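Why do we care about 3D structure at all? Because function follows from shape, and shape follows, mostly, from sequence. That is the central idea of this module. The next example makes it concrete: a single protein chain, its amino acid sequence, and then its structure expressed as tokens.
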Amino acid sequence: MNTPPPKAELARRTPLPYLALATGILALSFSAMFVRWANAPGPITGLYRVFLSSLLLTPFFLKNYQKQRNINRSNILFPVLAGLFTAGDFALWNTSLSYTTAANATLLGNTAPLWVALGAWLLFRERLSTRFWLGLGLALAGAALILGTDFLLHPRLGIGDLMAIGTGMFYGGYFLSTQRSRWHFNPLAHLWLMGVSASFGLLLINMALGNPITGYSAQTWLVFFAAAIVSQIIGYMSMTYALGHLPASVVSPTMIGQPIATAILAIPLLGEIPTGLQAIGGVIALAGIYIVNQAHSKSKKPI
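And the structure:
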């Protein structure tokens, strides 16, 4: 019987996985732009991003459902948890964009690898290497430089930065839940179930905050649909495809590409130019996140 070629061999045969990886990073980098362009509260933009994407994916999910029917229903807990973590992530991160720059919010929101690794250490007693602790120290030093600069010069930005760090914690919870969910569900099923769960979570959050669910302009609805299609469907599906053909040692470090791309896009699209200290802090934090990604991915055995 022929065995399937390894991921590295598949990647050498076609550039599609690398193209998907680049597409996913670029699509996700527009997330902050959509939140800024929508004339709506941040949690509302997050709600319609996941709700509309799930609505658009429903026909494909129902067609694919037959392949998932033998799954134990108790396993639905994992994509549901991923969706609830996503709801907290989007609500907090989208709101942080009203208080800080798109570059800072995206960078600090992508500190998730730190919290994932620390969670694995505290909850699962996973051993962490010296290289990890070095990366953690660098990432925290860079984040502290950004926070300190913003609190001294613009306290409003500092509050937004803290919210973005909280987002990173929710994002870390999403990664941990998704890892377990993907043991039982294919990418489409996971994305749909996660989106439905996140939609309910964000609906409750918006109702608690008193945000109006309807009454937005046609232009804002176009932004909602653009966020659903570009950031959620294209972004997440592209990254999922890449993860199916490229090793984690290639994919994980590229997470730092999103805050870099967002910072670059924010200059012409939002007119946000980082200060010198913010740029230095960002570079230090990115270096730390990169080292953490490398150290943590190498310490994990493939499933």
